[in-house]
Amino acid sequence: MAVALSQAILTLLAVFLIYPAYRAAYNIYLHPLRKFPGPKSWAASRLVFIRSLWAGDLVHDVERIHQIYGPVVRIAPDEVSFSQAEAWQDIYANKPGQAAFPKNPVWWSAQPGQPDSLITIKSDKEHSRMRRLLNHGFTETAVREQEDIVQSYVYKLVERLSILVKRKPEQAIDIVQWLNFTTFDIVGDLGFGESFDCLEKSQYHPWVALIFNHFKASAYVASIRFYPLIDKILMSLLPKSVMKIQRDHFQQVVDKVHRRMNFEVQRPDFMSHVIRHNGHQKDEHSMSVPEIEATFNIITVAGSETTATVLSGTLNYLTRNPESMNKLVTEIRTHFPQDTDLTFDKLRKLHYLNAVLNEGMRLCPPIPAGLPRIVPPGGGSVCGVGLPEGTNVSVHAWSLSRSPESFVRPLDFVPERWLNSARDTSSPYANDKLHAVQPFSLGPRHCIGKNLAWAEMRLILARLLWSFDITSIEAGGKSNPVWESQKTYMLVEKSPLCLKFRLRHSHA
Ligand code: HEM
After folding, report:
1. In terms of C-beta density within 10 A (0-12 exposed, 13-18 middle, 19 or more buried), how is residue 358 classed?
2. Ligand 1 touching residue 366 (CB < 6 A)
3. Known InterPro entries for this protein (predicted)?
C-alpha cells in the first residue's frame, strides 16, 4: 500500500513538476527555434501566451516584445511573430511553385459540434470550391446591386440619430452601438433577407448581443486546442451552460439560413447565387447545407463587427484630430450639395475620405493580432529567415502598422500619408511603407467582403459627416478611452465612444 502510494506521488511529481521543467529547459536551450530573440518565459511554455490571451492583452504584450527584441520574435515555444512588411507576401500569398502557408487549426477549426465553413476549411481545393460559389455575391458588380439595401439602413441610422438629437440636443451618443446596429442589420439583410432590426428597435438583437461572448469563448477554446493530448478532458470541463449558449446561438443562424433558402427569391444578396446554383441537384461545385449554415454564421460576424470597429476607431481618431475632421467634412459637403448625391460610385472618388479610412485601418485594424498560419511540411522561409515545419507564424499587424521602420510619426493620425501627393520625394511621408498595412490580408484566403466593406464604410462615414457636426464630449468632463487602451480577444472589445451630434442644418 505504502509502495503504491509513493509510486503514485512520484508519478504525480513527474507529471506536474519534472516534465514541465524538462520541457521548459528543452524549449529554451535545445528547441530548433532557440536562436530566435524573445523573452525566455514566453519561449519556455505556451502558458504565458495563453495567460496574456485570456487577459485580453496579447496584442499589446506582443507589441512590447517586438519593441524590445526586433521585427522577428519568438512568442511561444513553437511560434514566431513578424513585424516586417515583406512577411505578408511570404506567409499569406501564393508564390511561384509554392502554396500559401496553411491556416493554423488551433485557431481556425469548426466550433465543437459545428461543421467546417469557408473560413475554417483546411483543404485548399474545398476552400476554392466554396469561395468560387460565394464570390458571386461579393464582386464589384454585386456590391453595386446591393447599394439600395445598404443605403436604406444608412438612411435609417441618420434618421434614428436625428430623432435622438432633436429630442435631447446636449446628450452624448455612444456611436459604437449605433455602428454595430447598422452593420449587423446590413449583413443580416444581405445574408438572410432579414435584418436584425437593431436600428428599428434601437437596441441589440439578442443574437448580436452575444457575439462578443462568442469570440471570448472561441479564444478560450483555441487555448485548449494547444494541448491536444488533454483537450477532450479540458473541453468536458467547460460549463454545460456555456456550450448550450454557443449551440443556441448557432441554431438561430441555422433557422435564418433555412428561412432564406426556402424563400427562393432572386435578390441582390449573398445567398441568391448559392441557392440558384445548389437548386435541387448537387454537383461538385455546390455547397452542402451544413457548409452553408456554418459559412453564413461566419459571414454575419466577419462582415459586421469588423466594419463597425474600423468606423468606431476612425471616428475616435477624427474627433481627437479636428484638422483632419474639418478637411474631411469640407470634402464631403463641397462634393455633395444634396444627400441623394452620396452614392457608392461617387464616394469612391473622394481622395481624403479614402485616405482617412486607410489611416483608420492602419491604426485600428479589426483583427489586430496575427492571422495564424503553420509552416508546411519540409519547412519554409519568411523574410529570408528559415523556419522548421510546424512552426506557428503570423504577421503582427498592430506592431507593423505602428512601427517607426514603416511609418513617419507612426502613432499619429495622418491621413495625408495616403494621398498621391505624399509620394512626392519632398513629402515627409514619401518613404512610408503603405504596403505594410493589409487589413484584408492577401492571397487565396484574403477577405471576400473587401469591396462591400469599403463601400459600406465610405457611405456610413460620409453620410454621418454630411448630416451632423460631430465632436468629442470631453468638455462634458467625461473623456472617451483612447483606442489603444482596449482589450482584444481575437476581436477588439470596443468601449463606448460617446460623441456629441448636432444636426448640420440646425445652426446654418
Ligand atoms: C473593414 C472590414 C473588414 C476587414 C478589415 C476584414 C478583414 C478580413 C481578414 C484579415 C480576413 C482573412 C482572415 C485570415 O486569412 O485568416 C478576412 C476574411 C474573411 N472576411 Fe473579412 N474583413 C472585413 C469585412 C468583411 C465583410 C463586410 C465581409 C462579408 C460581408 C467579410 C467576410 C469575410 C469572410 C467570409 C472571410 C473568409 C474568407 C476566406 O477564408 O476565403 N469581411 N476578413
Report:
1. middle
2. yes
3. Cyt_P450 (IPR001128), Cyt_P450_CS (IPR017972), Cyt_P450_E_grp-I (IPR002401), Cyt_P450_sf (IPR036396), Cytochrome_P450_monoxygenase (IPR050121)
ipTM of the predicted structure? 0.99
Distance CA 274, CA 262 (A): 12
Q: Quick: pLDDT tens for 299-325.
A: 998 999 999 999 999 999 999 999 999
State if residue 371 touches ligand 1 by the CB under 6 angstroms criterion: yes
Protein residue closest via CA to atom 10 of ligand 1: 440
Give phi and psi for 392, each to the nearest 5. -80, 130
CATH superfamily placement of domain 78-503: Cytochrome P450 (1.10.630.10)
CB-ligand 1 contact for 119 (6 Å cutoff): yes
Cβ–ligand 1 distance for 306 under 6 Å, the answer yes
Q: Mind listing the pLDDT tens digit for each residue in 456-497?
A: 999 999 999 999 999 987 645 567 889 999 999 888 999 999
Q: Which of 121, 260, 172 is nearest to 497 (CA)?
A: 172
Could you tell me the distance, in angstroms and rounded to a whole number, from the CA of residue 438 to the centre of ligand 1?
A: 12
Nearest ligand 1 atom to alpha carbon 366: 5
Domain boundaries defined on the chain = 78-503
Ligand 1 binding pocket includes 440 (Cβ within 6 Å)? yes
The total of other beta-carbon atoms located within 10 Å of residue 286's CB is: 17
Radius of gyration of the chain (CA): 24
309, HSE (Cβ side, Cα atoms, 13 Å): 26
Q: Is 447 annotated as a binding residue?
A: yes
In 364-472, which residue ranges form alpha helices assigned H by DSSP?
Answer: 397-401, 450-467
Task: Name 230's bridge partners.
Answer: none
